[in-house]
From TrEMBL:
Organism, as annotated: Geotrypetes seraphini (Gaboon caecilian)
Record's keyword terms, sorted: Dioxygenase, Endoplasmic reticulum, Glycoprotein, Iron, Metal-binding, Oxidoreductase, Repeat, Signal, TPR repeat, Vitamin C
Name this polypeptide is given: procollagen-proline 3-dioxygenase
Coiled-coil stretches noted in the UniProt entry, renumbered to this chain: none
Keyword Signal: yes
Gene assigned in the entry: P3H3
Molecular function via GO: iron ion binding; L-ascorbic acid binding; procollagen-proline 3-dioxygenase activity
Amino acid sequence: MASPADWRFFPLLLLFGYVPCCIPAEKSWLQPFDLLYSAGIHAFFQGSWSQSRDYLQQALHSYSLLKKVKVSCQAQCQRETPFHVSLKDLGFMDVVLQRSECLEHCERLQLGPPTRHKVSSLVHKEFQRREPYNFLQAAYFKLGQMDAALTAAHTFFVANPQHAQIREDLGKYRNIQGVRWDNARDLETPPHWEAFEEGVSHYNVQNYTQAILRLETSLKEAFMSLDECRALCEGTQEEKSHAEEIQRQVYEIIADWYVEVLKCRQACAIEIARKPGQKLPVHDFIPTHFHLLHSAYAEVSDGAAAVETLLTYLLFYPRDDSAQEKLQQYRQRFREEEGARARENVNAYIQQSLGEKRLIFYAMENLDISFEDPDAWTPEENIPEVVKNRLRAEKQKRMEAEQEAERTAEEAQRGPLPFEGPRVTLDSHQLNGSQRVVLDGVLTWSECQEILRLARTPAGSGGRRSPHTPHELYSSLSMLKAVQLTGERALATPGVRLFLDAGERSRRIVESYFRTDAPLHVSFTQLVCRTALEGKQEGRVDLSHPVHADNCILDPEGRECWKEPPAYIHRDYSAVLFLNDNFEGGDLFFTDLDAITVTAEVRPTCGRLAAFSSGGENPHGIHAVTSGRRCAIALWFTHSSEHAEKERKEAEQLLTQMEVTSPQDGETVEGSMTRRSSTLSESKNPLGKKQRVSSMEHVRLTREEL
Ligand SMILES: *[C@@H]1O[C@H](CO)[C@@H](O)[C@H](O)[C@H]1NC(C)=O
Ligand SMILES: *[C@@H]1O[C@H](CO)[C@@H](O)[C@H](O)[C@H]1NC(C)=O
């Protein structure tokens, strides 16, 4: 609350002969909503639920009454001191002062001294975000007033759909017996939203009569919201510190204050166009109404209204050629409608808004203020050149800030890592893409060595020509082969256990980090080594693995990715777990949809996991390995349980059995692994290993190596 000696008002108050002493103190004015709100919160934290509920209800009531008074005073003073000011008008300051005096007088009669209801912008924002409803729903809940709790909760939720706690609370209400779910109402959303959305849906199904009714309602309500929003701009600005104000001239303060009011009013065009709970406003909200309306009226052959609404649209965009053409058509078609005019209230709104913009632009040229023009229709010639440049620069800055905020929001969406050890080294933003991450520390050095030993076994080393390049040898080991190997030797190789567990570890990281909405299964695991062929590297220009996407067929020319067979469309996420770095080349890289523009590169090293979604947003390839041998575990994950890797389960059973019979072999690794990934406690299968292995022989390796 402001003190009566509020400096910003001080000069005005003196000018208007405001004398604090003479206000009748006993008059029962509206209680300031911020005081009521803070009393409500105080009671809430004391656990006085009914008191808290009452204060909060009163706060909301006071808030809405205050708005009503301001709106009606605004209308009254508009009539008394019409505001048509031009810059040349020497009486500008006079008009501003007169208008202020009128408003202040009007409000003082109904609300008390003007400082009583001056509220910090923080509290205003909380009311705009509907915070009081969140306290209120909890208070109702404690008092057992379930229907009221539900309505308050719903009202808060509509404006805060991402709010985790309210979603949880609403979930609780859902399960409480006797709560009438369909009673949930939204007490605050301005009525124009419902009308607008219904109007647009009717329009889309060519139900023009209905569309017209709803869109006209929406328009009427939207203008009322606009008036209310604009009326609230006066007297709600942040206070400056006294020290700051004392340095300035009275007229400077007034000018500054007035520019703030104008900016606030301008921002209302955005305010009414943003549906509660939505981030972005509907572009060109008011003009859109007229755009839809004129076609709808023409469809129902209401010529007068069609011409009228089209002319009104043209007030915003007088140089819209197609609209001008339409106008000629309408005039020919509906000959009798020569007399139709654009709507006067809209014309008045446009003129007033342009007047405000002119003043703001003038101030921008002379004072150091910033401004975001909410309207797309402001005519170019109304904007001074200097201001244009500044607006452009400011827009650029805002966009950068928004990107930054988006990035932070995306980061906030990231889930925690499921266990200690790994850490995120590069996020999507640093990788210049989306749904990408690089983590380090997923395997320790000795774990990498153990798995690499697998790659040196006869089954693993193979060393045939790479299917992708004549300059490299290629060897791969699938889960199936790894287990067969184990079976043949009848021992639980620590490397096999690790190979198995590394996949599970990666699965858990991906599931948790990307907060996948459904559980992920490993669908395929493969240990792949690529060895540079000595003497065959000279002048090499090809890749170790060409650019591709994992679950769709990349069409670089069309800049599309077709998610259809033969692509592995069940794949949802992909990962590469690197095992070594003692080779040259072989970096993993991501590209744009064009398969050419490299957006990020990842250098392999032991224990580094590169994980990403498998779709067209993440085309990737591998640079040529020009010396040495590059080994990594490739993993694909799926939400579809029928595509879960069957060999994985069998391998788990077999290994567990063998580890029981020959503990010394698996001990070191198994101990460390089971601590870290707890989901590996499959029931012990009593099947003999012979039987197991022979049954595996029937499992055909149907999947291509990638
Ligand atoms: C069109 O409007 C009528 C009411 O006039 C309604 O009964 C009908 O369902 C609407 N059609 C569609 C497809 O919305
Ligand atoms: C992302 O792009 C920037 C600029 O092109 C580049 O410097 C950076 O290395 C890229 N990030 C990665 C991980 O490659």
